[in-house]
């Protein structure tokens, strides 16, 4: 129930147990846990569409087009779906199997990654030889338990002690030549931590020989944002091993089907979600907190969960009277970055036809997969280097996802939907041109790159919707066009994300303000982790 409290110097007014700012999937997950526990909760969202980057709308007549994410990789490895019983509220996933695909070259066949490890190794062997196939089998054996440990660390608040606990027992996945059992365990732990902190490129060069396989895995890892020559990116590639436990899932009806199930869950438990209600300030109100929205006098609660971008949260706190010097220091020390990429959504009468695919694929071919359309890491490096100096890549690196092949509800009968994510594209261009000016050319480069791998595909495009980094910022609140909110570099992960002062999902000196969303541990992607963590912290407060 909504309890009544006395506003200082005024009359009584309603005070909820929780107000959540931002209806992205983490904000909705936080609200769902609170409502499930019988707490009164309201979600306030500036957009008219709930879900943020986990939402699906009709961009073209009869098409259900994702506004952000398309494949759900991490949340299927989490406890969230079962704890909130989202299947009972209409959420259905279909396995993406094959889960990834890399095109062939003039001398190598395509590589198809399936849930079945042996089938994947057979594809690798056919493409680049048995040595790398065996290396991949061993790689999965070593990195699967490590990736599971990383996932465990995602669903608890980040702290050095918890981090150590999550990785306890993994010394058996590393080697040491030190004599004696104690020294050997210590050496293995040092070896393990070094490998976890190494770059993705170093990891790939250590394990594999063939460049097409290295490029595919590097591109998979780079979906987290950083280039794979950056320190601490090895685990981003190691996460590929978990796809042989549970593959990526496609929510039937679009990525937003997760949001729709969460909305039904919240409503069934008495929670409220208000769209078109932007927060403008978070301030003290007696012994609790008030979130102001234009024209309605504010929403009071004992706990506020800010699930929006951290810079947006800092703006709200500053307007509400929080110490501006501290906020300025945090803002200066949080690296948001300058965009990661752009998306092109295409309505078509045919999905891409990639040459030389094996004959034993399922009826949907490789269109359940992340189409990792690169064949060498130099392609990735050139694209990332161009973006780092504010230029458009000559050849964008693409991930193509044709999920209408496994979910026909996404497009009208006889037609298809292709979602294409392209890295790297800066939010701000060095020559001073605007994204409105260059968007058509950038989209044309995406189409040309698709045609390199699926000749003639562009002839089948009937509708196009372009999402530039500027569009991602304006429509989805992704400051700087960064889909991860804050850079996913090692110095801004775990107990450093988004800032050491804020990494425990709390705001110093503001008991009752909690943080969630991609700005916080464990970062971007569809995990639900920070929503779950912030809800657990809120439930422990009383």
From TrEMBL:
GO terms for cellular component: cytosol. Gene3D superfamilies: 3.90.660.50, FAD/NAD(P)-binding domain. It comes from the Bacteria. InterPro entries: FAD/NAD-bd_sf. Pfam families: NAD_binding_8. This is NAD(P)-binding protein. It comes from Gordonia mangrovi.
């Amino acid at each position: 129930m909504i309890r009544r409290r006395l506003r200082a110097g005024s009359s009584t007014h309603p005070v909820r147990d929780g107000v959540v700012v931002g209806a992205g999937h983490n904000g909705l997950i936080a609200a769902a846990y609170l409502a499930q526990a019988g707490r009164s909760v309201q979600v306030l969202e500036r957009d008219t569409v709930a879900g943020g980057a986990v939402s699906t709308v009709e961009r073209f007549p009869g098409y259900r087009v994702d506004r952000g994410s398309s494949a759900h990789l991490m949340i299927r490895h989490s406890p969230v779906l079962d704890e909130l019983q989202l299947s009972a509220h209409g959420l259905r996933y279909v396995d993406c199997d094959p889960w990834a695909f890399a095109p062939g070259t003039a001398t190598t066949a395509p590589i198809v990654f399936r849930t079945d490890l042996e089938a994947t190794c057979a594809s690798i062997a056919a493409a680049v030889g048995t040595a790398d196939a065996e290396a991949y089998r061993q790689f999965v054996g070593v990195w699967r338990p490590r990736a599971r440990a990383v996932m465990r660390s995602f669903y608890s608040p980040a702290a050095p002690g918890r981090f150590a606990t999550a990785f306890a027992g993994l010394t058996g996945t590393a080697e040491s030549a030190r004599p004696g059992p104690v020294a050997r365990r210590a050496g293995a732990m040092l070896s393990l931590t070094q490998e976890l902190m190494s770059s993705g490129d170093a990891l790939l060069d250590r394990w594999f020989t063939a460049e097409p396989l290295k490029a595919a895995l590097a591109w998979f890892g780079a979906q987290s944002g950083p280039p794979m020559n950056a320190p601490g990116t090895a685990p981003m590639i190691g996460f590929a091993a978990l796809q042989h436990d549970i593959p990526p899932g496609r929510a039937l009806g679009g990525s937003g089907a997760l949001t729709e199930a969460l909305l039904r869950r919240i409503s069934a438990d008495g929670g409220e979600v208000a769209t078109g209600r932007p927060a403008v300030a978070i301030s003290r109100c007696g012994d609790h907190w008030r979130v102001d929205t234009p024209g309605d006098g504010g929403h009071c609660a004992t706990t506020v969960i800010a699930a929006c971008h951290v810079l947006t949260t800092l703006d709200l706190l500053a307007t509400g009277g929080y110490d501006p010097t501290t906020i300025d220091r945090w803002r200066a020390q949080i690296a948001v970055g300058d965009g990661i990429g752009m998306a092109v959504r295409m309505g078509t009468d045919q999905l891409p036809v990639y040459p030389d695919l094996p004959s034993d694929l399922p009826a949907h071919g490789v269109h359940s997969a992340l189409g990792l359309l690169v064949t060498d890491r130099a392609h990735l490096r050139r694209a990332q280097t161009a973006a780092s100096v504010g230029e458009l890549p000559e050849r964008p690196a693409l991930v193509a996802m044709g999920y209408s092949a496994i979910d026909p509800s996404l497009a009208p009968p006889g037609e298809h939907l292709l979602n294409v994510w392209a890295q790297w594209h800066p939010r701000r261009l060095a020559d001073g041109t605007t994204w409105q000016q260059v968007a058509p050319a950038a989209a044309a480069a995406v189409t040309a790159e698709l045609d390199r791998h699926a000749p003639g595909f562009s002839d089948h495009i009937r509708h196009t919707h372009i999402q530039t980094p500027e569009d991602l910022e304006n429509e989805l609140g992704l400051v700087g066009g960064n889909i991860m909110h804050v850079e996913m570099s090692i110095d801004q992960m775990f107990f450093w994300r988004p800032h050491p002062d804020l990494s425990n999902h709390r705001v110093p000196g503001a008991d009752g303000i909690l943080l969630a969303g991609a700005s916080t541990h464990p970062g971007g992607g569809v995990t639900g982790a920070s929503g779950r963590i912030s809800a657990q912290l809120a439930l422990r407060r009383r």
